[in-house]
Amino acid sequence: xxxxxxGLAQVVHRPGLGERRSKAWFLENSRSFRxxxxxxxxxxxxxxxxxxxxxxxxxxxxxxxxxxSGVPERDAQMAMLAASRFTVGCVLEEQADTGAPDGEELPxxxxxxxxxxxxxxxxxxxxxxxxxxxxxxGRTSGAPSPT
Length: 147
Known about the structure:
Blueprint: H1 22-38, H2 43-47, H3 56-68, H4 73-96, H5 115-135
Helix pairs in contact: 1-4, 3-4, 4-5
């Protein structure tokens, strides 16, 4: 999760600092990424499709943190990818929202959901799915055994 756009530095929330639990860290990591994308007009478009090759050490630390928290390695990778892409998509939609429903009146029963509320709900679903997979019987965390 890196922004290669000029002039846009991501706030880094390093895993393992203090007494933060992995779930709280996962949520804050995605929230921080969202805030960073929103700091610049078209931040999501600028980030979309980029490859964070200059940020691999930080990404490896994030993966190691999740794995050491009991998340299987592949699930940690997929959860970070899903959360990243979900975040970019949410911000892309939010930054494209002009507030007008494209000249059409919406039906009275059409649900209006605030961008932040939708983001938080989707993020919670990703985390719940990760939590269920991590707790599934027979799944191993991939963390090295203490020797």
